[in-house]
Design brief:
By secondary structure, the chain is of the alpha+beta class. It has helices spanning 8-16, 66-77; strands at 42-43, 47-56, 59-60, 81-94, 98-111.
Length: 120
């Protein structure tokens, strides 16, 4: 009975695979906190913003971005920032047909700056 040896390249690949990984930048924030804070300013009604990418068959048509979802929520509410925010990942897929994946952001917009004639 002979013992077969793995080719050296395959052995190295098998040993380094558990050490591999990937990283993706999800968002960058000007301010971020999980603590309650009293932020002065005019508050608007709660708003939702989303950025979703479609999946056709099994090919994604784009990459969803948290920053885009946050920006859409802030713009929808006419504020400068969101408080009491929640970021959710939404994903659904009908195999080999269609799906959508992305981020949904919900929060209360706060306007810190006074409105000028140009802002209205």
């Amino acid at each position: 009975m002979t013992v077969r040896r793995l080719p050296p390249l395959l052995a190295v690949a098998l040993l380094t695979m558990p050490l591999s990984g990937c990283m993706a930048r999800l968002a960058d924030f000007t301010a971020l906190s999980t603590k309650n804070a009293n932020i002065p300013g005019e508050r608007g009604p709660r708003v939702t913003g989303e950025d979703l990418a479609s999946i056709i068959i099994f090919f994604p048509t784009g990459q969803a971005n948290i920053k885009t979802a946050v920006d859409r929520a802030i713009e929808k509410g006419g504020g400068d920032l969101l408080v009491d925010g929640v970021i959710s990942r939404e994903c659904w897929y009908i195999p080999l047909i269609f799906g959508r994946c992305g981020f949904v952001v919900e929060g209360t917009p706060v306007r810190l700056r006074a409105q000028t004639g140009a802002d209205k």
